[in-house]
Each structure stands twice: as structure tokens, then as C-alpha cells.
Design goal:
Shape: elongated
Largest sheet: none
Mean pLDDT: 92
Number of helices: 9
Number of strands: 0
Order of helices and strands: HHHHHHHHH
């Protein structure tokens, strides 16, 4: 008879995500993971598969949580520009509030692995597509309410915002000048 598991798979995945986020894929060892997750190596392999499979699962969980956050923010009953400002401000403030200044797990992963790992490249591309789609729908809503000029291409503005989101996360990880970063957000919003 198999022994029952004594740990929570989802909690273990979150702990693994935190290790990968802090150390990157290459910098994370199996012993780092087992220590953080408080399980032994055979249990890790039996539950999550190998290191790469665990990493991909952690990356997908991160991506899903970010998409859920965006959809929740976009669904608020507020003016579109206010929602965009809220999204941008949250990215800056969350990054600055992190004492380890880890930045964005997706951005970190893209810079470390996307050009070397086809599966990570596919996940990163899917993430970009989903985020741009959420933003394009938001912009179209703003165009219908005359908050955003209908002369502007919603898909191009969504791409611009996505690029801005990714850049903000990179810069906020190394620049702690909140006033400077928030001023940059004003410029981003003025382009919309």
C-alpha cells in the first residue's frame, strides 16, 4: 500500500517558484528545491517530475496568477485610463516592495532561457499573446467610451503597453526612485 503524501502539492509548487524566482533556473539545484519544499528528492521527482518539469509548472502557475490579476483589474468598474494606471502603478510598487528585488519571474525567465528552451519560448509567447489580448480588449472598451481615440490601433497600443509593462518590471528591479518611475508612467499614459 502506498504511503499518503504529507505535503501540499500547490504549496510545494509555490515554494519551488520562489526558489526559481530568486536563483533562476540554472542557479537552482535539486537540493535548493528539496530544502525549500521540505521534501526529499524521490518525493520531488514522484510528485513534480524532473527539475525542468517542475520549473515549467511553476512558470505556468505564475503566468496564470498574473493573468487572473490582470483580468480582475480590467474588470473593475473604473475608467479605462485609471485601470491602465493602476496596472502600471501596481507593477512598480510591487517590484519596489519586494525586499529581494526579484523583478518579474516571466521577464527573468525570458532573459535566461527563452532563446535556449523551446518550451519556455512557447510559454513566454503565449503569455505575451494573452496579456496583449487583455490589454487590447481594455483599449477597445476605452475607445467605445471615448476615453481613448478610436483613430489609434488597439492592437498596437496593447503591444506598446505590454512592452512598457515588461520594461517597467526590469527597471523597477534596479531603480528604487519611485517618483522617477511614476513620472515615466505618466509619459506611457500620455501616449495612449
Amino acid at each position: 500500500m502506498a504511503r499518503p503524501k504529507k505535503f501540499d502539492d500547490a504549496a510545494g509548487l509555490q515554494k519551488a517558484l520562489n526558489v526559481f524566482w530568486k536563483k533562476g533556473y540554472a542557479g537552482t539545484s535539486i537540493s535548493d528545491l528539496t530544502a525549500s519544499m521540505e521534501i526529499n528528492a524521490p518525493s520531488l521527482y514522484a510528485t513534480y517530475g524532473d527539475k525542468h518539469t517542475l520549473f515549467v509548472s511553476a512558470l505556468q502557475a505564475y503566468m496564470q496568477s498574473q493573468h487572473a490579476w490582470m483580468r480582475q483589474s480590467v474588470g473593475e468598474n473604473k475608467p479605462v485610463r485609471e485601470i491602465i494606471r493602476l496596472l502600471l502603478t501596481s507593477l512598480v510598487d510591487d517590484t519596489l516592495a519586494d525586499p529581494e528585488r526579484r523583478g518579474c519571474f516571466m521577464v527573468n525567465t525570458i532573459t535566461e532561457m527563452a532563446n535556449q528552451d523551446a518550451q519556455v519560448f512557447t510559454i513566454a509567447s503565449d503569455n505575451e499573446h494573452r496579456v496583449r489580448s487583455i490589454l487590447a480588449d481594455l483599449i477597445r472598451n476605452g475607445q467605445q467610451t471615448d476615453e481613448i481615440s478610436p483613430d489609434k490601433d488597439a492592437d498596437i497600443l496593447a503591444s506598446f503597453l505590454f512592452i512598457s509593462f515588461m520594461g517597467i518590471r526590469v527597471i523597477a528591479a534596479t531603480n528604487n526612485n519611485k517618483k522617477h518611475l511614476h513620472s515615466a508612467l505618466d509619459v506611457i499614459l500620455s501616449a495612449i
